[in-house]
Amino acid sequence: MYFPDLSQYSYLEHSPFSLKEKPRPLNVGWLDIKHTFPTDKASKDLLDALFEACSHPVNKMRGFHQCLFCRSHVWAVEVSRGDRTIILGSAEIRVKGKDGKVYAAPDLIFHYVAEHHYKPPTEFVEALLSQS
Question: Which member of 73, 79, 121, 130 has the lowest number of beta carbons within 10 Å of its beta carbon?
């Protein structure tokens, strides 16, 4: 499911728990193969912070989204950092900025950044790193 970065979150807008979110989150990392995205090599700090955020997901779903860019995963993306392993593709993360903004991203964002060099918006990265 594609949503432009920093557009207003609407993926689960008809869900009762999603409509309660104030302020409405901004989308980050909702990528697909039909749209280009900025790229850059991620820092270790960014990857560590993303992994930690993805270790505490919200809006967990029953199924899994595969990575549309590599399509080599049978049912989900499994990633490890140190001695911890998590499975991605079935939930979202929320990141709160100091300015009151909230960002919503699929948990696959870790994989997109680590493997496909997706460069999230600077304001999202700053908010995420300020939580670490």
Answer: 130
Residue 45 main-chain phi, psi, to 5 deg: -60, -40
pLDDT tens for 78-96 read 999 999 999 999 999 999 9
Name 90's Cβ contacts closer than 8 Å, sequence gap at least 6: 57, 60, 61, 62, 63, 64, 65, 76, 107
Domain residue extents for the chain: 16-131
C-alpha 7: how far from chain center: 14
Give the helix/strand (H/E) hosting 102: strand 102-106
- Axis-axis angle for helices 122-131, 44-54 (nearest 10): 70
pTM of structure: 0.91
β-strand 26-27 against 77-81: which pairing, if any?
unpaired
Give which of 114, 39, 113, 115 is closest to 71, Cα–Cα: 115
